[in-house]
Amino acid sequence: MVTDRLRIALQKKGRLADDSFALLKSCGLRFAIRGGGLLARVKNMPIDLLLVRDDDIPNFVANDAADIGIVGENVLVEEQLVAKTKLDADIAMRLGFSRCKLSLAAPDIGMVKSAKDLDGTKIATTYPGVTAKYLSVRGIDAKLVEMKGAVELAPSIGIAQSICDLVSSGATLEANGLTAFETILESEAVLIRSARDLSPAKADLLAKLMNRIDGVIKSSETKYIMLNAPKSQVAAITALLPGSDAPTIIPLAGSDDLVALQAVCTENIFWETLEDLKALGARAILVLPIEKMMS
Ligand code: PRP
Ligand code: ZN
Q1: Cα–Cα distance, 36 to 289 (Å, whole number)
Q2: With pLDDT > 70 as the criterion, what percentage of the chain qualifies?
Q3: Ligand 2: centre distance to CA 166 (Å)
Q4: Please, which residues have CB within 8 angstroms of residue 211's CB and are 6 or more apart in sequence?
Q5: What residue ranges define each of the domains in the chain, with the CATH number in brackets?
Q6: Residue 170 near ligand 1, beta carbon < 6 Å
Q7: Does ligand 1 lie within 6 Å of residue 175's CB atom?
Q8: Residue 211 has pLDDT above 70, yes or no
């Protein structure tokens, strides 16, 4: 590629797109998405965002139209399976958002209740690659009805007895009187790249971006906790703090037996933990979000 701007392929709209834009903004990239545009320039870094259909992203990365991409793992796996030769696009980093499942589902009142009932039936899906692989591995003899969307309508209009579709909250299945009976794939957003070498400038930028993404993901799970506690309980209290290193202990003015304790917790702190801390004598407990982290 002639340009030395790092090119990231992203889904142009949808839930995963919104979360991807938010992630990049948290990493300090400044850009504006205008309706219909194919390319968005990042103003403060040499990065361009290529806004495309999600099923094109693995191909764009493999064919050097983009250096990296952010896409659902489900789309990457599907595109790999339907490609004629293996695509040069692999997961460089898991991003932890847009978690969903690709599941088989059928009408609550119908002949298909489990995978055992699929022989001789039709399955509607927008994921023919993943679904066909599942069927062949299990030796199930079912026909695929390939659709481009609105798969959940297939059973009610009589073109298939079951569907294989993405399930996130489950609301779509429920609204259509369908129940999931088997999960074929669990998915989350992933950052993908090819095995090609990048120019040194782009490689540096990518390393920096991945470092920031890592920091954003970690800081979203990490909390700072502050509390006052009796000196005698410091060891017991420290043991309760999820994923924390040695806490900072500070003497409290005018008190011989109370200290202030502060610690970074790399896991979520639940209400139950706060109640247990209080039972050990901790008081004035504060849990604060962490905005940025770098180690
Ligand atoms: C996906 C999927 C379901 C829905 C599941 O569709 O195909 O229809 O989301 O989400 P839920 O379990 O939270 O209801 P999407 O919105 O991505 O649109 P599409 O089917 O048109 O691609
Ligand atoms: Zn859908």
Answers
A1: 36
A2: 99
A3: 7
A4: 294
A5: 6-97+189-219 (3.40.190.10), 100-187 (3.40.190.10), 222-289 (3.30.70.120)
A6: yes
A7: no
A8: yes
